[in-house]
Amino acid sequence: MDEVRVTRRMIDGAPVAHVVIDRREKLNALDSDLTTRLTTVLNELSDDREIRAVVLEGAGGKAWVGGADINEMAGLDVGNATAFIENLHHAMVAVRDFPVPVIASLDGYCLGAGMELAAACDMRLASTKAHFGMPETQVGLVSVIEASLLPGLMGRGRAARLVLTGEVINALRAYEWGFVEELVEPDRLAAAVDAVLGNLCRAGPNAVRAQKRLLREWETLTPDDGALAGVPYFERGYETGEPQEMLARFAKRPKS
Questions:
Q1: Helix (H) or strand (E) holding 209
Q2: Contact 210, 229 (CB under 8 A)
């Protein structure tokens, strides 16, 4: 069975992709082979100029991604630990650099590398039965790579509490802390994701791709520099003709 599956479907006439991590017998834990496969799938999918969004899911219902593979990590040493963690980082960079929005549809356990992978996504929607944590210190490790995104998402103190204590929090607390943008009952998760997909697919495709690139730039810029960095994006938008067409259509809408 392929541990990373891709399916495509149409939302409002536009194609979206679902990427499903399926190693359910191991709570979708990321070993080196699965991580490499995920990176390859994302990189190949990124070449699709028609795709409007990606939904990243975990199979089985018990976990989204339960973390990095414990058995493989137990066998690491000084000689191969760097390669293992850099491989995980490459998968998360593939998400962060993906040309269109990546939505994490979170159900079940999202721990360690799983929480970092979720942090790499552009949006996080979760079911009420999701749980989140960074348990590395509890097994003698340090939270690294995309754990660096956590302070920006939930604040330094809350991120520090997770990475220092290793405690696991429920979905409501993750929502209250700002890690999750929307929290719904499990049977409403797919509909909530589809609502976001609908908005994305109705938006200008060139604008969304440009906005994703600008969001990535903002990560390394001060607010003043970030404000100026967006000006060329605004100008280049008019080169595509997309604003002219969509603004004219908007102006012609019936007035209520």
A1: helix 205-218
A2: no
CA–CA gap between residue 113 and residue 128 (Å, rounded): 20
Q: Where are the domains of the chain?
A: 4-201, 204-251
Q: Is the pTM of this model over 0.85?
A: yes
Q: Give residue-wise pLDDT tens across range 214-256.
A: 999 999 999 999 999 999 999 999 999 999 998 898 888 887 6
CA 209 to chain centre: 15
**How many Å separate Cα 39 from the centre of its chain?**
13
**Which one is the CATH code of 4-201: 3.90.226.10, 3.30.390.80, 1.10.10.10, 3.20.20.30?**
3.90.226.10
Q: What own/partner pairs with CB < 8 Å and gap ≥ 24 does 83-89 have?
A: 84/32, 85/144, 85/145, 87/32, 87/35, 87/36, 87/39, 88/30, 88/35, 88/113, 88/116, 88/145, 89/145, 89/146
Pairwise CA distance, residues 141 & 76, whole Å: 12
